[in-house]
Amino acid sequence: MLYKSIVRSHFDYSAIAYTNANISLLKKLDVIQNKALRIITGAMCSTPINSLEIETCIPPLVLHRLKTIERFCLKIIACNNRCVLDRILPKQQLPQNMIGPYVNAGDLLTGHFPELLRIIIHLQSHFVNMYKSNELPLYKLKYDLINTSIELIPDKVYSQNQLLEFLETYPDCYKIYTDGSKTTNSVTAAYYDSKQKITKCFKLDSDCSIFTAECYAIFCALSYLNEIVNSNSNFLILTDSHSAISAITNNSPKHNVNYLVYLIKHEVYKLKSTGRNVKLIWVPSHQGITGNEVADTAARGKPDEDHSASLKVPYTDYYTHITQAQKQLWESYWNDISQVKGRWYREIQKTMPALPWYHRNHLNIDQRNFITTICRLRFGHCRTPAHLKRLNIITNAACPHCKEPEADLNHLILKCKQFNLNRLLLVDELITASENDSDSDVPENLQTILSNPKYFKAIFNYVTKTIELI
Ligand SMILES: [Zn+2]
To answer: What is the pTM of this model?
Structure first.
């Protein structure tokens, strides 16, 4: 965490300018990152870098740079920044070899970073339906419109009864429920007019985020209200999206890069200028609140209209694609390199974790010592006689306790006669740990034990009582 915010952020700054620098210069940055990873995990110098990266969930710097630069380029394209784009893009038609396969992990890590032109062409050809504008959405609006606020009323509606009680205080209000939905291949936005019993569902571009879907549902509801001629003067919009509400009610431009937020403000402004008023309410989803359930079902049902081409995708929604692509590159690199380096760790950590196992340490034990001990065991690079001999630090790999000639981790933890009594305790703790979960037997293999966080405490206790330092 400290490394990412204090050290790596400095590398990110102006990465676009130095990324094609000499490899030996870029390596200097890698050295700093590797040092940081060793400090985080308390690993020995001999530990392979690829294992360190996976354990801490911090990608190789070059992949991180690619992600940062792609995000930056996306922004340039979205802002239609001709100043920059005209300098980078060729005047004539694009050369054929520019289109097609883009980057692979092997090339990247051997120093073939794609040119800026290539990155921009790739992004332009992949994210066709992006919202582009020469101006920031904020600057397109009149000043009084920017400050148009939409009132959020109470924050405590948790159930159908509470909502009904609350709505009694607003008897004349016209209520519209909105909801957005995102599945693997479709994104939809829907609203439900509880007075006219009308639902409307719109299909959106599958690249839209759930946030965009929720905002679009609110926008459509507001445009619908603007069209109603003989309507009351007060409207209530009920949504289950916290993030949409906080974006709409927040007037700071820093937080609102999604242009839909400004479209919503515009609709609110139109309503207000004709003497009508809108208020927002947050309602929890899946709590049996009838209107919300109807909107939710509508959003999951068959769309009434297809807006996937007309609604342009905010560029920030593509960030997930970029992150995903970076992960895939990293994974393919790890799959290759772990055949050669860090094979012990690979046996323990078979898939890429989303977060490090020590993230939000829920294990409640002495943090630092615990994390470093377990990390070292998982890396297989620790102070066992066998490993120290391999590093030429000592000459004899025999066990100092029982004189077994090859004292590796397996021996010290599972076999050494000296610790038979402690091992009984270990087995006991492992059984208790496995009983907490259903249907699993205590593993007999050390690597299997080290692959599951529920056994970490037991193994840590054993190590501190026997070998003490690992
Ligand atoms: Zn021994």
So the answer is: 0.79
